[in-house]
Amino acid sequence: MATIVIVGAGLGGMPMAFEMRELARKTDRIVMISDKDYFHFVPSNPWVAVDWRKPDDIKVPLAGVLAKRKVELIVNAVTRVDPDGRKVILADDSSVEYDHLILATGPRLAFDEVEGLGPDGGFTQSICHVDHADKARNRWQSFVENPGPVVVGAVQGASCFGPAYEYAFIMDRDLRQRKLRDKVPMTFVTPEPYIGHLGLGGVGDSKSMLESELRQHHINWICNARVEKIEDGLMHVVEVNDDGSEKTRHELPFDYSMMLPAFTGIEAVRGIEGLVNPRGFIIIDKHQRNPTYPDIWGIGVAVAIAPPGKTPLPVGVPKTGFMIESMVTATARNIRAVLDEQEPESEATWNAVCLADMGDTGIAFVAIPQIPPRNVNWMKKGKWVHYGKIAFEKYFLHKVRAGTSDPIYERYVMKTLGIDRLK
Prior knowledge:
By secondary structure, the protein is of the alpha/beta class. It is built from 9 helices and 22 strands.
């Protein structure tokens, strides 16, 4: 019997629990450790932040779902991973031993790296977690009573730019519905070297398409932007040249701001030599396995991925939903291979399929693989994307409630489109 511990109950952790339970031996113990007793669908957070969704609309309690699949649940925070002792230490000083550890933790949100950033002790909002989105919703409801300038985007070191673009367009749509758009100047601030870079070197015609959308929605932008500090109602931004030298200083007044932070690995793994890189992300090989500690596996936002090219300011690589699910499938199969005393062979494709909502329309892109050079590389706009994302939200929440990761009809549709999870 092996004990397989999964840390994190998010977009990677939940499918991981379901697939691992299906592939593990009947005698193997599957344990999920989460600091929350619920799953929440992160892609819907921008809708929560403008009150188009309530937090409970996108939450699923963990206990019943996991018990149904015979996965043990421990609701506690992991304070330290002990790879030599093959155990994780919890906040109450108890520990859980493992034969295989899967780190699906998501990131630490590094609000502390920019003075004044964040909803807790800072002056900006966040949509990285449903609790943050709920705070943003409360602030938004006050803002629309007395509207003014908006600054939205991401700070240097951020890696998930799609939600920032989404939220900018969703705010624009909500303000137009309220007939308040004419009272709200909007500025998009990003460390990307150009609009539509997305941490991926662009996808299809993302640069011209997103620039055109920002113009049509009367949203100004500043690229190569380093956020120096944020005061109450004022953001200090340094725009840099291609060599990183200072170009222009901007002082941007705002009455409402949402800025995505940089990500790091969680504190529980920071500084463990051989396990993580200097930013605390899990080092993995092509089989999702850590080379130094082969009983530790990484999936999702927690893993280290090198940027596709050098940029004037730090720009991370996003880990999109389908890419994460491909990591999940490869990891589950490889762990089963090791349990059977075989060498791991499965490799995730890291293909990216993304639906970005824009309030009443949307932009979809497919990048195969996500990191260039690519075999498939396109981006398209249409109302179908908006409705497609709504449908995907309902579908994914249904998958979690049903306790399945890869229904046969999803597998068939993706196969038909030439989008595979494994190489």
